[in-house]
Every structure is written in structure tokens, then in C-alpha cells.
Amino acid sequence: LEFRRVLFRSGPQGDLQKAIEKSFGSVAKWQEQFGESAMKVFGSGWTWLVLRAGKLAIENTPNQDSPLSTGGHPVLGLDVWEHAYYLKYQNRRPDYPKAFWSVVNWAEVAKAYAAAK
């Protein structure tokens, strides 16, 4: 369990961290923008960290759509369908993307980024 906490809460490192900082200014700014973008999804959909044309971007897709269908390479996705958060967060939807960061497996996100490059 202790290993899991360290793994999931360490944040992006290495090439992924550098790319996030280059694209968004800092990891904190990216996380803020990512959460704000997630709150703009109306109804069912996803918020993504996507590698598109060699640059990281935040994108939203409706329903079951993926950035793959428009040529993007998903690196990290947040399910913002109501079923993903309602049991725990109910009408406190803004708390959901904030809590998301505590369960991200950054090693897997780094692998997805490396594979997309």
C-alpha cells in the first residue's frame, strides 16, 4: 500500500514533466486547466491530455469519442460521465477532478506519452 501511494502521488517526471511545463507553464497550471476543461463537459464525455502534432493539449470529447478518431494520441483521460463520480461526489462535481490526481498512475501516463512521441 505504501508503494502504491508513492507511485500514484508522485506526479509527472522526466520527459512528461518537461513536456507539460513547456506546453502549460507548470504542472500545477496544467492540472488547473485540465480540471476547468473537465467542468465544461456537458453531459457525458471525457477530458484528455493529448499529444497532437508533437505538442501536448487538453481536449474534451463527447460520449464515447476518443482523440484517436481525429488524429490525436491520448496520454491521459478523465471520464466525466455522471456515473464516474456521482456515487461519491454527487452534486460536488468540481471535487471529482481535484481528487483524480491522487489516483493517477504516472508511470503508465509516462509510458503512454513515450509511445505517442
Précis, in short:
With 117 residues, the protein is of the alpha+beta class. The protein contains six helices and three strands, in the order αααβββααα.
What does this molecule look like?
There is one protein chain. By secondary structure, the protein is of the alpha+beta class. Helices cover 49% and strands 20% of the residues. It has six helices and three strands; from the N terminus they run αααβββααα. The chain has a three-stranded antiparallel β-sheet with strand order 2-1-3. The chain is globular, with a radius of gyration of 14 Å. The termini are far apart.
What does the secondary structure layout of this molecule look like, with pairings?
Blueprint: H1 2-9, H2 14-24, H3 27-39, E1 45-52, E2 55-62, E3 73-79, H4 82-89, H5 95-100, H6 106-116
From the structure above, extract its key features.
alpha+beta; three-stranded antiparallel β-sheet; 3 strands; 20% strand; single chain
Distance between the termini: 32 Å
Order of helices and strands: HHHEEEHHH
Determine the mean pLDDT: 86
Hey, roughly how much beta strand do the residues contain?
A: 15-25%
User: What is the number of E strands?
Assistant: 3
Structural class of the helix and strand makeup? alpha+beta
Q: Characterize the main sheet.
A: 3 strands, antiparallel
Q: Which residue ranges are poorly predicted, with pLDDT under 50 across at least 5 consecutive positions?
A: 1-8
Strand order of the largest sheet: 2-1-3
| Apparent shape | globular
**How many helical stretches?**
6
Radius of gyration: 14 Å
Helix content: 40-55%
